[in-house]
Amino acid sequence: MNDPVARTNGTTVRAAGCVLWRRSPVDGGLEVCLVHRPKYDDWSHPKGKLGHGEDPLAGALREVLEETGYTAVPGAELSTVCYMANGRPKQVRYWAAEATGGRFTPNSEVDRVLWLPPAQARGRLTQVRDRDLVDELPSPPAHT
């Protein structure tokens, strides 16, 4: 995938994250994980800045673990989202990822997580740019 932000712009903030999903332990339906960041009082997908030279997918999975406490298996790459943050262009690459284990523990960056069906997750996300990512989730394999 080509980066929509010009590589020549050295001030672009590079970040990565995941649309984290699982099967509901109650009814087996699809659920999407959203994180609440008290610093911004918003609901978003787990994401964060990449370290210098860090592989974007590795960074996305690291951020999922740090923010949610869950390990994940990556799936399809989703859209790259570009926007301005604190006067600088920010580029966030996303992947669909299935939660495979773990447990959330509140921390200074993320104080709550919610697991919601896709339509409810879409409505809870603070930023419009995050909502379309939910629609991009591939259909997971049938639950057996």
Keyphrases for this structure?
disordered N terminus, globular, 144 residues, alpha+beta
Please render the helix and strand layout as text.
Elements: E1 13-23, E2 30-37, E3 42-44, E4 47-49, H1 56-68, E5 70-85, E6 88-102, E7 112-116, H2 118-124, H3 128-135
Parallel strand pairs: 1-6
Antiparallel strand pairs: 1-2, 1-4, 2-3, 2-7, 5-6
Helix pairs in contact: 2-3
Give a description of the structure.
By secondary structure, this protein is α+β, with helices and mostly antiparallel strands. It has a single domain, classed as Nucleoside Triphosphate Pyrophosphohydrolase (Alpha-Beta Complex). It has 3 helices and 7 strands; from the N terminus they run ββββαβββαα. It has helices at 56-68, 118-124, 128-135, and strands at 13-23, 30-37, 42-44, 47-49, 70-85, 88-102, 112-116. Strands 1, 2, 3, 4, 5, 6 and 7 form a 7-stranded mixed beta sheet that branches. Strand 2 and strand 3 form a beta hairpin. Helix 2 runs antiparallel to helix 3 (128-135). It is globular, with a radius of gyration of 15 Å. It starts with 12 loop residues before the first strand and ends in a 9-residue tail after the last helix. Residues 1-9 have low confidence and may be disordered.
- Backbone structural class: alpha+beta
The first-level CATH class is given as Alpha Beta
CATH architecture: Alpha-Beta Complex
Output mean pLDDT: 91
**Poorly predicted runs of 5 or more residues:** 1-9
Largest sheet: 7 strands, mixed
Summarize the helix and strand pattern as letters: EEEEHEEEHH
Shape label? globular
Number of strands: 7
Give the assembly state of these chains.
Answer: single chain
Number of separate domains: 1
CATH topology: Nucleoside Triphosphate Pyrophosphohydrolase
Indicate the radius of gyration in whole angstroms.
15 Å
Name the helicity range: 10-25%
Give the termini separation: 33 Å
What percent of residues are in strands? Answer: 35-45%
Superfamily at the CATH H level?
Nucleoside Triphosphate Pyrophosphohydrolase
Helix count from the secondary structure assignment: 3
